[in-house]
Amino acid sequence: MSKRVFIKTFGCQMNEYDSQKMADLLHSVHGMQTVERPEEADLLLMNTCSVREKASEKLFSELGRWRELKEARPEVVIGVGGCVASQEGTAIFERAPYVDLVFGPQTLHRLPELFTAVAAGRKKLIDVSFPEIEKFDRLPEPRADGPTAYVSIMEGCSKYCTFCVVPYTRGEEFSRPFDDVIAEIHALASQGVREVTLLGQNVNAYRGPMSDGRLIDLPALIRFVAAIKGIERIRYTTSHPIEFSQRLIDVYALEPKLVSHVHLPVQSGSDRILALMKRGHTTLEYLSKIRALRKIRPDISISSDFIVGFPGETQTDFDATMNLIDQVDFDYSFSFIYSPRPGTPASGLSDTLTLLEKKHRLAILQRRIEELGREKSHGMIGSRQRVLVTRPSRKNQEELAARTDNNRIVNFAGPADLIGQFIEVEIVEAHANSLRGRFLNSVKKAS
Ligand code: SAM
Ligand code: F3S
Predict the structure, then answer these.
(1) Could you read off the pLDDT of 124-163 as tens digits, one per residue?
(2) Rounded to whole angstroms, how far apart are CA atoms 274 and 270?
(3) Burial zone of 2 (CB within 10 Å; 0-12 exposed, 13-18 middle, 19+ buried)
(4) Structure pTM?
(5) Cβ 163 under 6 angstroms from ligand 1
(6) Quick one: pLDDT at residue 286?
(7) Residue ranges around ligand 2 (CB below 6 Å)
(8) Site to substitute for ligand 1 among 57, 164, 237, most atoms within 8 A of C-beta
C-alpha cells in the first residue's frame, strides 16, 4: 500500500503554495497520498510560520499532539519545515526530540530524499540551507485543485524591514525564470484553472530572467500571463509600496484581466514609525500611489496590513495611522500587535507601551477597518458582479461559493456544473464574512 502524508500548514499563501508542492513532490517520487487526518499518516509534516511569536508557538503545541501518535507507532516520521524550521534549526530537535527531520522553505524539494534516508534508519536529518535556484528546478508538474491556483514567481525578501524575520528565514529576493512561470501557468490553465494569484513576499520586486538574458518585471509578466488561453483573472500578492511603480499602475489601464483589488501593506500612517520600520517611503508617497491607481480604476478595492504598538509608537503616531485608514478608505485589512522577533533590528528597541494599551489600539483600529469593510459590502447590495464559481458552499452543500473581483465570497443557489465558470450574480445580502447572491447568467469568456 502506498504511504500517506498529512501536512499541517500555518501562515501565508506562500506556505500554502509550498505545502501543495510538498504533496505533489511526495506523490510523484514516492506515490504518497495526502490524507486529512494525522492518525492515518506515515509521514507528518508541519509547514510553519515565524512572522509573529504566536504563530511560531503553535508549532510546539501541535507537535505535542503528534508525539502521542509517534509513541503509538514509532515508525511514523515527523518533519518540520517552513520559517520556524529555518530560524530554529537544530533547536527544534532539542525541544521536541521525537522530530525526525527539519527542512527550510528553500529545501522542501529535497523532502523525498530526506524521507527515504530517515525511513531507512538514518538518525535525525536537517537541511535549512538556501540553494534557491534548485528549488523551483526540481518541482514536479503542477496539479490543479479547482479553478483557482497560486503560482510562486519569486522567493524571499531583501527589504529588511526592522521588525520582520522573512529575509532571514526565506533568504534574499530571488525571481523564478520567466519561461518556468509561463510553463506552470499553461499547465494549470490546461487543467481548468481560470484565475491565478502570482505570489511572492515582495511580488512586485519580480525581475525574472528571460531566455535571452534580459529581465522581465511584474507589469510585463502580467501581460504575458493574460495572453495565456483559459486564464481570465489575475491577482498578485504581496506587494511593497516602494516597488509599486508607475509601470505597474499603468497595467491597470491596459489589462482588464487584472482584478480591481490590490493588497498594499502600509503598516503605519506615521512617517516617524515608517522610518523606524525602514519601510523606505512616507505616507504622502503611499497616498500618491493610491491616487494614481484610483485615477485609472476609481472603484479599486485596497487592502493592507498594519502593525500596532511598534516600539515607541505614541498616541500621535497611532492617530496618524487612524487618519490614513480614513483617507485611503481601505476595504479590508490584516492587523497585528507588534511581536519582537529574535535577530531583527527592532527587537533591540526599547518598548514602553503596555500590552493593555496595544490591545486597546488594535481594537480601535480593527473596529474602524471592519466598519469600512461592512460599508463596502452593504454598498454592493443590488449590484451585478462577475464572479468565478470556485466550489460548493461550506455552510450549505446545496449551494455554491464564488469569488468577486474584490475578493469577497458570494454564496448562491445554482447547479454544480457552474463550478469553474464565470457567472453574473446580483448581490442580495451582505454578512460579516460573505455575501449572498442570486444567479443571473453565465458570462462569455474573454479569450
Ligand atoms: N511583503 C509584505 C510587505 O510589503 O510588508 C509583508 C510580508 S509579512 C510576512 C506579512 C505581514 O506580517 C506584514 O505586512 C506585517 O504586517 C506582519 N508582520 C511581519 N512581522 C511582524 C512582527 N514582527 N510583528 C507583527 N506583525 C508582523
Ligand atoms: Fe518582511 Fe518587509 Fe519583506 S515586512 S517580507 S521584510 S517587505
Answers:
(1) 889 888 876 677 777 788 888 899 999 999 999 999 999 9
(2) 6
(3) exposed
(4) 0.91
(5) yes
(6) 98
(7) 157, 159-161, 164, 166-167, 201-202, 240
(8) 164
